[in-house]
Design goal:
Distance between the termini: 30 Å
Strand content: 5-15%
Number of helices: 19
Radius of gyration: 22 Å
Helix content: 25-40%
Shape: globular
Structural class: alpha+beta
Number of strands: 19
Strand order of the largest sheet: 1-2-16-10-15-12-11
Length: 490
């Protein structure tokens, strides 16, 4: 993931997933943390280590720099392993200067040629041409690769590994790295939990509300939307209580769960039967919830106009929440680090991701993120797998956390992380262990297409072009037909 610009383009990429051909497709301790059984961690976003530059932990299709950054660990060695790393930008360069140096020490028997690259269409092209890299990690449309046979199964290599322990990674994380009983990826580099309700504690405290008392149900948030949203004389939004589609509320695909399904207790896709589950009352209620929140703010056009001025997410100081003009959003574990850098003079709090009032008090969390894998047709698989093992281990995890704030999925490493590094991070670490339900992401072979169709259906509802039940019925039919068509031609 690159240092995001919080533009409309960024959000739409996150909403639509990663497009394939043929598809539409990471302190000083000031926190008030109640820990495993509490609801909120109040955080003043100061950091004692400013060299870390965390970016949002979501996957979006990352464009490589015009001249991709690359390096080699043992140039001239008899065996070279090409590694495509799916994040570009200054953060990736900084990370790889440290990773490459350490990799040269730990993997001394061969050369690793790493490059920040496009692990989507360009990787598919290289696979089709018979010239794939030996290993890849980051910003790939993972389940679509698994289903298309674009990656090699890793079960035998994992079984023989003295480094990788399946039990050290939650089963929910393995589900997205697998397809139809075979494992194709190893969750690593950036693969930690995706959800919280992030609250601007500065704004709420000034209004006389203690963030730790907020219930995380949508009826409560709807009331707060009415209370806090402020409009100008021309109807434009000056202060927004919440945009339910900002950040992880709108992300779907490419390593990100489908928030609205998880919040309403819906598994939108069953890998074993190939059945979709969009046409239901729960998601119709979810759509109406978004529309109600938007209508209070003046409608979808007003919210879009607001973000055209301020941007989305939290990785840019001019985005809405860092600017102090958006009070709440659904976002992930990288947010404490993001906000420590982009909004250091404001305080933030974290609690459980919002749920419908019928599930009031329910504490759910979700895995997500990225995997290392070996593309189909790659040579030197054993050496390539050693690179995947290296990225899985404590040394690499520490380097990545120090330079980006990202975290992997390994329980044993997460127990060692400095939870005070960014105030609020402790809440996320606790949430992974102490929740009512930890969800994974289903391996949907048409994930990008599905995400695009959901976005289209939701936009039709928000702009008054369709009723939720009708939009969902059509969505169900479209994705089911696409799934069947691809299955018949695969």
């Amino acid at each position: 993931m690159t240092r995001h610009l919080c533009s409309r383009r960024t959000l739409l990429i996150a909403l639509a997933g990663i497009i394939l051909p043929g598809s539409l497709a990471a302190c000083a301790s000031n926190a008030t943390t109640t820990g495993a059984t509490g609801t909120t961690a109040a955080a003043k976003t100061t950091s004692t280590n400013q060299k870390a530059v965390p970016t949002r932990g979501v996957s979006a299709a990352s464009k490589p720099t015009p001249t991709p950054v690359s390096g080699e660990t043992h140039k001239g060695a008899s065996i070279t392993v090409d590694l495509w790393y799916g994040w570009a930008g200054a953060n990736a360069i900084h990370t790889w200067k440290a990773l490459g140096a350490q990799m040269g020490k730990d993997l001394s028997s061969f050369n690793v040629h790493w490059i920040t690259a496009d692990n989507n269409t360009k990787l598919l092209t290289a696979i089709a041409a018979g010239t794939p890299p030996n290993a890849a990690v980051g910003n790939a449309p993972y389940p679509e690769f698994w289903a298309r046979g674009a990656a090699q199964p890793l079960d035998d290599l994992i079984a023989k590994s003295k480094v990788i322990d399946r039990k050290d990674i939650p089963a929910a994380s393995w589900s997205y790295a697998s397809y139809k009983g075979k494992t194709y990826g190893v969750p690593e580099v950036e693969a930690f939990v995706r959800y919280s309700l992030t609250i601007d504690a500065t704004n709420l405290s000034q209004a006389g509300i203690n963030p730790s008392t907020i219930s995380w149900d949508w009826d409560t948030l709807t009331q707060l939307q009415q209370q806090f949203t402020k409009k100008g004389s021309n109807g434009s939004i000056n202060l927004l209580g919440i945009d339910p589609l900002d950040a992880m509320g709108g992300a779907f695909g490419g390593g990100n769960p489908f928030y609205w399904g998880q919040a309403w207790g819906i598994q939108y896709f069953d890998e074993h039967s190939g059945a979709f589950n969009f046409d239901n009352e729960q998601l119709a209620e979810a759509m109406l919830t978004v529309k109600k929140i938007y209508d209070i703010a003046g409608g979808a056009r007003a919210v879009t106009g607001f973000h055209s001025s301020y941007g989305y997410w939290t990785g840019n100081p001019t985005a809405a929440m860092p600017s102090g003009v958006e009070d709440m959003q659904i976002n992930g574990y990288w947010n404490p680090g993001d906000l420590a850098l982009t909004s250091p003079h404001r305080s933030f709090a974290y609690t459980w991701p919002a749920v419908p009032t019928s599930h009031k008090g329910f504490k759910f969390q979700s895995t997500g993120g990225h995997s290392g894998f070996i593309p189909r047709g790659a040579k030197n698989s054993e050496e390539a797998f050693q690179v995947i093992e290296f990225l899985y281990g404590d040394t690499a995890e520490g380097i990545i956390f120090d330079s980006t704030g990202w975290l992997g999925a390994r329980t044993s490493y997460l127990q060692k992380v400095d939870a005070k590094r960014y105030q609020g991070l402790e809440w996320f670490l606790n949430s992974a262990q102490h929740n009512d339900q930890l969800n994974g992401i289903p391996s949907n072979p048409i994930e990008s297409f599905t995400a695009t169709q959901w976005q289209t259906a939701l936009q039709n509802v928000l702009y008054g072009r369709a009723q939720p039940k009708d939009a969902l019925k059509q969505l169900q039919q479209v994705v089911t037909n696409e799934y069947k068509q691809r299955a018949s031609t695969s």
